[in-house]
Amino acid sequence: MFIVSVTYQQQLEVVDHHLPAHLAFLDRYFSQGTFIASGRKVPRTGGIILATGVSKEQLAEILLEDPFNQHGVASYEVTEFEPNRTGPEYAWFLKL
């Protein structure tokens, strides 16, 4: 599993201009099951994506498709982790 930390490199006006295409990119990988959660950082300096079911190399290729990446809107930091504990109500998370 991976945590992708997205950090904006442009002003929010530029981010907002590319946001519809970025959301379509997210939707494509949510529908494939690769992305399992995403959202904005607070304050709004970027976002976080949780990804699973791919290698780090495959994820790097996927992130190249993001319009934010293609237009220099954001940079990405990818952290791989292996979840091994959750609260009882989130045990399903360990099976992803």
From TrEMBL:
Domain YCII-related: 1-81
PANTHER family given in the database record: GSR2449 PROTEIN (PTHR37828), YCII-RELATED DOMAIN-CONTAINING PROTEIN (PTHR37828:SF1)
Sequence similarity: Belongs to the YciI family.
Name this polypeptide is given: YCII-related
Species per Swiss-Prot/TrEMBL record: Trichlorobacter lovleyi (strain ATCC BAA-1151 / DSM 17278 / SZ) (Geobacter lovleyi)
